[in-house]
Every structure is written in C-alpha cells, then in structure tokens.
Amino acid sequence: MTTGPQLIQGELRLEGVPLREIAARFGTPCYVYSRAALTAAYEDYRQALAGRDALICYAVKANANLAILNLFARLGAGFDIVSGGELQRVIAAGGDPAKVVFSGVGKRRDEMRAALEAGIHCFNVESASELDHLNAVAADLDKVAPVSLRVNPNVDPKTHPYISTGLKTAKFGVAFEDALALYRRAASLPHLRVRGIDCHIGSQLLDPAPAAEAAEKILGLVDTLAAAGIAIEHIDLGGGKGIRYQDEAALSAAEYLAPTLQALAGRKEKLLLEPGRSLVGNAGLLLTRVEILKPGSEKSFAVVDAAMNDLMRPALYDAWHDIRPVMPRDGAPRPYEIVGPVCESGDFLGHERALALAEGDLLAVLSAGAYGMAMSSNYNSRPRAAEVMVDGERMHLIRQREDVAQLFAQESMLPR
Fold first, then answer.
1. Do domains 6-33+281-407 and 35-277 have the same CATH topology?
2. CATH code for 6-33+281-407?
3. Which of 251, 299, 235 is nearest to 55 (CA)?
C-alpha cells in the first residue's frame, strides 16, 4: 500500500482525500496525518521483531496527539515518555502504564510519584542523584520502583550534533565506566529494583552499524552485571532509526535492526525499542497557503501562512522538507524562498525551491509528522495549527485550531 501523498488527477491526495478539501474544510496551516501510514510504520517494526520477546515503546515526544497515541495503543504499543504530562496523555489516550518507560534527565519528584502510582514498567535513570530521589519518593509511597540505567556507550551515531545523545559529552545518561558501581548502588537501595539497562545514541540514524556497536557494548556490560549478581530482565536499545526527508537511503525496520538482532541472538533478555520519528515522520504533512509572492533581483520569496512557530525543524536544524504544490500549475518554475510571516530572518520552511506559484496556492510540506506540531509554539501570538487524521476517504479533526483568545486566557493584568 502506498501511504504517502499521491498526485491523482492533477492534485495531491492523502489516502483517498484531496488535500484541497482538507484546506477548504479546516483551513491552513494544518497538520494532516495518514492512519494507513502510521499503521504500516508500526507493522514494519512488529514484523521485524516477530518471534522475539519485544516491546515497541513509541517515543511520545515525536508527536503526542491523543488520536495518534490511541492508535498505537490499540496496535499494542508501549510508550517512552519524558515528562509527567506525557504520562497523563498516554493514560488519557488509553495507553497501558505497565508498558511505559520513563526517560529524561530531570524527572521531578511529583512526576516520579505519579509514575509510581500509575504502575509504569520502568524508570530509565540518568544520574546517581536520580537514584536517590527515586528511592526516597518510592519509600514515601511504600513502593519499590523498577529501574534501569541509561548508559552512554560513547558510540558516534553519525547524525546532527543536536540529536546525538550517546557520547561522553552528552547531558544524557551515565558514563559507561561508572555503570557497574551505579548498578551496585541501585541494587543496594531498598525501594529500587533493578529491571533493565537502557541506551539511546541519537536520532535520524541511517547507518545500522553504530546501533549494533552500541548493543554489543551494552551486552558486554549485561554479562559483567550478571557476574556481579545483578540480573537484567530487559535491554532497551532506544530508537533513532532515520527516515527519508530528501534523498536519504532510509532502511526498513528489518534492515536497520538486522545487525543489532544478530548481536542479540540467543539472549534471554526482553528487548525494548523506543522509535518515534520512524513511526510518525513520513505519516504527516503540513498544509499551508501562499499569501504573498515577492519577486526580487537576488531572491524571490513565497510568504506562506505557516511559519517557524508551526514547523521549527528548518530554523532549528536547517532541516530539509520536501515542499510540493497541492495542485501543480503549468508554467516555468522559478526558485523561491518559502518563508513565513514571523518576524525572524530564520523563519523559513525551504530554500531555493523550484516552483510555479501564484498567490492562494496550497503547498504540502512533507515528512512533518515528527517534531512538527510537537515543537510548535505561539511565538508572535500565533495560534497553533489544526490537526486532521485521514482514514481512507474520511477525514477527522483531531485537534481544533487555537484562537487568539485562548493564548491569553490564563494571563491577567496588574491592578490599578
């Protein structure tokens, strides 16, 4: 099944729905997702892990819309969370707390308490201090907290430095050489129970070799822990598999995981994975309309109604997203800077895109399902976009567009 947008009878459609109809009904800017694409991405992982004791924990930070969480929960997914708010979203969406792993370097005590009371699967602990905090919170509740340590294998993931997370210089996790002593400490604390080990080296990974190298280092540590009398029930190897934005050679889950699964052959430990981008990235797009065309001698600008507050990735990472006209028009294309109305020079969605455009045209910014709406903001007092899920020939509004009054509803002025 083809799950991306397709040009049919002169216009882009997602599944059976013309994007033009979505814009007419719900306005722009608007995020649009394909249920078929989300399901296919999950099934890609499930098939790659067939016959293994494994749990796919969707990384909620990639896209936390309740409809998407609910879809993955119904497919059997667990969830990787990094805040108490994400835990509440998972529960509200029908997710099973017993399939939740809680990552993050700065868990607050109230977040620890909520996760313990919900009965999550495991805390991925990222510092010695966190062990002490979690032990104290669990003691107050007369509970025992299940823990794993996030260990940095110091493997170069060969990705953008902002999304490289497993090197010695990263804020995440604990140093590989400190792990044995910290596991011994965790095992000695009365309100902690060692359950697993965790590692995550980065995001948008296209080469499977670094992940396999990290897995082999983690497996060596698991054996060292066993020799010290500390049994590990599960090995969490994080996520990070890359997707195709432009011309990347993105691999299937089976291709990407093959070297890692080979390293794990014969192991008895349960395998956990935390994919995010690879489940939702190519399943979503941002629909936007051309408001103003500004031809110039040096550059020509197409000012659209979406901006950096709607899709931060280009401004933040200089990320590339394919941009296609919803209804391509005849005429010679010219290079345009695709920019938004936000008052920043860095407010762009694409540089030098060869397009034939007129004011009022609709554009689809592709591969925007991950870290799009999730990272959006209200900068310049701009309401956040609507979100729509396409399911066959049906479209469902899964987030209403904000209005300006909502942006300042929680604010108050000083008394006279």
1. no
2. 2.40.37.10
3. 235
263, 224 contact by CB (below 8 A) = no
Which of 240, 204, 399 is CA-nearest to residue 321? Answer: 204
Q: What is the chain's Cα-based Rg?
A: 23
Lookup: tokens for 115: 């996760």
Give the domain ranges of the chain. Answer: 6-33+281-407, 35-277
Q: Convert the pLDDT of each residue in 63-99 to its tens digit.
A: 999 999 999 999 999 999 999 999 999 999 999 999 9
Alpha-carbon distance of 381 to 234, in angstroms, equals: 45
Burial class (CB in 10 A: 0-12, 13-18, 19+), 11: middle
Q: Is 182 helix (H, G, I), strand (E, B) or coil?
A: helix
Tokens of 124: 């991925």
Q: Could you say which of 30, 122, 199, 343 is catalytic?
A: 343
Query: What does DSSP say about strands 30-34 and 386-391: parallel, antiparallel, or unpaired?
Result: parallel
pTM: 0.95
pLDDT > 70 in the chain, percent: 96
Asked if 57 is an active-site residue, the reply is: no
Q: List the CATH code of the domain at 35-277.
A: 3.20.20.10
Phi, then psi, of 218 in degrees rounded to 5 = -65, -40
- What gap in Å lies between CA 56 and CA 257, rounded to an integer? 13
How far is the C-alpha of 53 from the C-alpha of 44, rounded, in Å? 16
